[in-house]
Amino acid sequence: MRRLIEASVLGGLVFLEPRAALLATAGVAVWRLRKNVRRNKKQAVMAVLFSALMLSVAVGAYALASFQTTISGTGKIVQLNIGVYSDQACTTSLSSIDWGSLTPGQTKTVTCYVKSTSTVDSTLSMSLGSWNPSSASSYIGLSWNRAGYTIKSGEVVSATFTLTVSQSITDVSAFSFTITVTATEA
What we know:
- This protein has helices spanning 2-10, 18-37, 41-65, and strands spanning 82-85, 107-116, 122-132, 140-144, 150-151, 156-165, 176-185.
- The protein is of the alpha+beta class.
- It has 2 domains: 2-65, no CATH class; 82-185, Immunoglobulin-like.
- A 4-stranded antiparallel β-sheet has the order 1-2-6-4, with no helix packed on it. Strands 5-3-7 form a 3-stranded antiparallel β-sheet, with no helix packed on it.
- Helix 1 (2-10) packs across helix 2 (18-37) and helix 2 runs antiparallel to helix 3 (41-65).
- It is rod-shaped.
């Protein structure tokens, strides 16, 4: 191994990457130092200095071969929150709607108020679920006038739900379902 390193360094050929070659050269110098200490003290001192120089060059080459950079990061915390109320002042939360007694083909509307306490503008949507009986969803439909509406933070808007009972409803004497109003970041 010593001959291969010595031959590659003395012959001007580099078989190792630069840092390894510099360290190998320093190792050859130390090996020569041991051999030459007995012969010549001046050569020994030169070999030590040469080894120290090669070691510091290797460390410097490593320092030059590395680089670092700093990247800063920023962001914001988004909070989406809406409330649905029965009054325009938004003091009474709306948790249920009693649609009363309905007949086939009838339409009924209820007006409520949606208030955004989100930190960003948000888009409103509505979905229905938990139908009881499940067949009622085939005959009863609900729509509203705020589908896709972008509500601003702090804004209050009126929303109208419209319930429609099909003319061909059968086998449903009472029904219940849930309405979910959702705000997604605009």
